[in-house]
Design a protein that fits this description.
This protein is of the alpha/beta class. Helix content is 34%, strand content 18%. Strands 1, 2, 3, 4, 5, 16, 17 and 18 form an 8-stranded mixed beta sheet that branches. A 5-stranded parallel beta sheet has the order 11-12-13-14-15, sandwiched between helices. A 3-stranded parallel beta sheet has the order 6-7-8. It binds zinc ion (ZN). The site of zinc ion (ZN) has 4 residues, from loops.
Length: 497
């Protein structure tokens, strides 16, 4: 009996000691105060409403928005920023970019290795962030390490959703082997294009190969899978009218992605290919300029997203100095036939996400992105619509990555309590004037040297300030990058699609 008591006493003592220890840990945790920033006196575009919410204060705690209101109470160590009546909006999201295809295709094939692309990608990402983009979905390339190092704080850049290498059939939109590389025998085509060698894309045929390619990307950290499902303008051996991959192959890719609780995005242009993709369960449709309204209705009904780069239908595309003259009549015809594509998407209630989708010298990509902001407001006829595409709708699309989403603590693309503190403070109202976000009607005639957009006064990502011109602080990297073009570059046309 005595022994029993003493044992239980001992147990109680041990438990009590444990309890004291865990209370101490809890106490320590409580004392770990999260950094607070209070942005006072702002008019909010919240990513969802076309009405500004006037004269608000926003408290950021750690990396999330803690509270929003006319009187918000903060701790004693809070950093206060006077918004002075500027617009506070969510950081912008690019739903379709190619941060690792940062040189012209021929240059990638002939003159570069993976380190060239990686170093340039660092600059691409810094410039994205300084332009107010706090999240980017990358649609083909080995951006896994880039994401890891951005998230670890070693490199400044937006949040990154990598697709890994895009998956393409032989002869498809991602088959970049030249004539000699591909050869004529399936056994003799061991030679890879740099696109494959570097992990920008994978040529895979048949169910076993597409499964392996999908699973390899998932293993490496893909947040979604990108498949090439039809012809394109930037590749050499696949005409624009073609459909690519059989239903069986597409279903295998979708199933493998679904097993990892994520989704598939597809490069596609025409009705036949989009409908096959819908049959397979694909969720986002990149480009898609030539689809009918019937297909648009089906996408809307089945909850899909369109992610088109509208500059592909712009008459200004013809001003690209690298564009072969032979392509000009085709561009003019496409513009004439599909000029109302954006407005038709809206009429058919399709959810649309912003895409810059430019490949080539990265100064060209930046110019294209700023041009796209301006041109898109014309193509859709509404600044509010384009702002939604850049914020809340894009955030909703990215959430389809489910457990593969590396940023699950809050919502992206909105200003609300509990959302990530990815914020811009802008001088001027983008609902009325897109130029305050850098939108411009200049494109190839714009200055290729990178200059900050003067009306974006503050860029915050994950609660950290990367650009702050309100109290004169500017991240040192901000203005030091000039256009990088190296000697002897082999110019090839920028991709129309
Ligand atoms: Zn693309």
């Amino acid at each position: 009996m005595i022994r029993k008591i003493s044992t239980s006493l001992l147990l109680t003592a041990v438990l009590a000691t444990g309890l004291v220890a865990s209370m101490a840990v809890a106490q320590e945790k409580k004392e770990e105060v999260l950094k607070q920033v209070l942005i006072k006196n702002v008019n909010i575009f919240d990513g969802k409403s076309d009405k500004l919410i006037m004269e608000q204060d926003v408290l950021i705690e750690g990396n999330l928005i803690k509270s929003i209101g006319t009187t918000v109470s903060a701790g004693p160590d809070v950093t206060v920023i006077d918004g002075d009546g500027r617009i506070l909006m969510p950081g912008m999201i690019d739903g379709h970019a190619h941060v690792m295809i940062n040189a012209h295709f021929d240059t990638v094939e002939k003159d570069m290795d993976l380190t060239d692309l990686s170093y340039r990608a660092k600059v691409v990402m810094e410039r994205f962030l300084l332009d107010g983009f706090t999240t980017v979905r990358d649609m083909g390339g080995p951006t896994f390490g880039l994401r890891r190092n951005i998230d670890a704080g070693l490199i400044h850049g937006p949040r990154l959703f990598p697709s890994g290498g895009f998956i393409s059939q032989t002869s498809g939109h991602g088959d970049f082997r030249d004539r000699a590389d591909a050869g004529f025998s399936i056994k003799g085509c061991a030679d890879l294009s740099n696109f494959e060698r570097f992990g920008i894309g994978n040529v895979a045929d048949g169910v076993p190969e597409v499964l392996a390619a999908t699973r390899l990307n998932l293993r490496n950290g893909a947040t979604q899978i990108k498949v090439m499902a039809g012809g394109g303008g930037s590749s050499r051996f696949d005409p624009i009218d073609t459909s690519q991959y059989t239903l069986e192959e597409l279903k295998a890719i979708v199933d493998a992605a679904a097993d990892w609780n994520t989704y598939v995005a597809a490069h596609v242009f025409n009705d036949r290919a989009v409908n096959r993709l819908l049959d397979a369960g694909v969720k986002t449709f990149e480009h898609g300029f030539f689809i009918s309204e019937k297909t648009m209705k089906r996408i809307a009904k089945e909850g899909g997203y369109m992610v088109p780069q509208m500059w592909g239908l712009s008459p200004d595309l013809a001003k690209n100095p690298l564009m072969p003259k032979s392509k000009l009549p085709m561009i003019a015809k496409l513009q004439e036939d599909y000029g109302d594509f954006g407005k038709k998407l809206l009429n058919n209630k399709v959810k649309v996400v912003f895409a810059s989708d430019y490949v080539g010298e990265f100064s060209d990509a930046e110019r294209a992105r700023r041009y796209e902001l301006w041109w898109r407001t014309k193509a859709f006829g509404s600044n509010f619509e384009v702002l939604k595409q850049l914020t809340s709708t894009a955030g909703e699309m990215l959430a389809m990555s489910g457990p593969r989403n590396p940023y699950k603590a809050g919502k992206l693309g909105v200003i609300e309590e509990g959302a990530y503190a990815d914020l811009l403070l802008v001088d001027g109202n983008p609902l009325e004037d897109i130029t305050v976000l850098g939108g411009t009607n200049k494109w190839f005639d714009a200055d290729p040297e990178f200059k900050l957009i003067p009306s974006i006064h503050l860029v915050m990502k994950d609660g950290n300030i990367y650009r702050n011109e309100i109290d004169g602080r500017l991240s040192p990297e901000a203005i030091s990058y000039k256009e990088m073009r190296y000697e002897g570059i082999i110019e090839s046309p920028g991709a129309p699609y």
